[in-house]
């Protein structure tokens, strides 16, 4: 009598964790990752910390700790970690304990079922956070969804899984700041990638947040606009033309028919610029495909 045994194959992944003064939280995050039934290479990018983040990461079992002498930015740190990763499947998460790293196997499993990227879509009281964050999140979400034509549960979650070979070509278009994840979401959607979402409970962070609401919101808007212009400019110009015409209608009771006429001409001009921008984008795409 013969029998055959099947063994569970442990999936190899690279977990990228940018960290700036996260000595209080990073140890527990690394311990939770090491307890997972995955072969995890853990790469911590110490982004100019002034505390002992790097030492805690090493003592907690990080495979590799990359050091930046001064803060270079969240996105820059992620790029450095992704470039140094030895595995094809990349997981990014934070060092502050906000993301449930125990959900990594679920995200990886979903990726293996045909998705190009799987994002942990946040929910919970801690995710809602400061009141001032909500208007910016709503505006960015509406803009990204309008541009892509798709519903996006969480455009900037920092807990996601994707493949190294897929993201490397987009490095020049991905920003070096907190907007890295937002621009990645937008680029993946605009280039026809399959993006899946898994609901995850977002917890209260350990330590102090590094986000500056006004500064980072303005930077995020800048990078969103840059990505849209590069990958789908017509949608942006269409939105601007609609806004222009809408404003003219709103002020028409004060100025009269002239406002509507000028608004219509302005919106047509903006839309025409969008058509030109879209044509130039198509020409660039064709020229790249010709050997």
Give a verbal description of the structure:
The protein is α/β, with parallel strands linked by helices and 291 residues long. Helix content is 50%, strand content 15%. The protein is built from eleven helices and seven strands. The longest helix is centred in the C-terminal third of the chain and has 33 residues, at 257-289. The chain is elongated, with a radius of gyration of 22 Å.
Compact description:
The protein has helices spanning 26-34, 53-59, 74-84, 104-111, 125-128, 133-148, 164-167, 180-190, 213-231, 233-255, 257-289; strands at 12-19, 39-47, 64-68, 89-92, 117-123, 160-163, 195-201. With 291 residues, it is α/β, with parallel strands linked by helices. A seven-stranded mixed beta sheet has the order 3-2-1-4-6-5-7, with helices on both faces.
Q: Biggest β-sheet: count, sense, barrel?
A: 7 strands, mixed
Overall outline: elongated
Order of helices and strands: EHEHEHEHEHHEHHEHHH
Strand content: 15-25%
Assign a percent range to the helix content. 40-55%
SSE class: alpha/beta
The value of Rg in angstroms is: 22 Å
Mean pLDDT metric:
85
Runs with pLDDT <50, length 5+?
Answer: 1-8
Q: Count every helix, treating DSSP H or I runs of 4 or more residues as helices.
A: 11
Ends distance: 60 Å
Beta strands, count: 7
Strand line-up in the sheet with most strands:
3-2-1-4-6-5-7
């Amino acid at each position: 009598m013969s029998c055959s045994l099947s063994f569970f194959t442990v999936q190899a992944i690279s977990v990228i964790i940018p960290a700036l003064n996260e000595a209080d939280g990073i140890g527990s995050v690394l311990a939770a990752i090491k307890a997972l039934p995955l072969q995890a290479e853990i790469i911590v990018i110490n982004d100019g910390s002034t505390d002992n983040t790097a030492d805690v990461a090493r003592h907690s079992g990080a495979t590799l700790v990359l050091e930046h002498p001064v803060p270079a930015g969240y996105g820059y740190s992620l790029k450095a970690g992704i470039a140094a990763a030895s595995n094809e499947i990349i997981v990014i998460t934070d060092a502050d304990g906000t993301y449930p790293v125990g959900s990594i196997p679920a995200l990886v499993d979903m990726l293996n079922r045909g998705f190009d990227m799987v994002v942990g879509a946040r929910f919970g009281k801690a995710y809602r956070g400061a009141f001032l964050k909500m208007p910016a999140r709503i505006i960015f979400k509406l803009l990204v969804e309008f541009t892509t034509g798709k519903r996006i549960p969480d455009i900037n979650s920092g807990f996601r899984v994707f493949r190294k070979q897929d993201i490397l070509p987009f490095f020049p278009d991905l920003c070096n700041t907190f907007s890295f994840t937002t621009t990645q979401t937008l680029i993946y959607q605009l280039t026809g990638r399959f993006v899946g979402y898994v609901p995850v409970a977002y917890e209260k962070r350990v330590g102090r947040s590094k986000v500056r609401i006004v500064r980072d919101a303005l930077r995020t808007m800048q990078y969103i606009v840059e990505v849209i212009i590069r990958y789908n400019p017509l949608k942006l110009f269409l939105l601007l033309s609609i806004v222009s015409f809408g404003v003219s209608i709103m002020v028409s009771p004060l100025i009269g028919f002239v406002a509507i006429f000028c608004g219509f001409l302005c919106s047509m001009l903006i839309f025409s610029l969008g058509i030109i921008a879209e044509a130039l984008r198509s020409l660039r795409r064709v020229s790249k495909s010709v050997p």
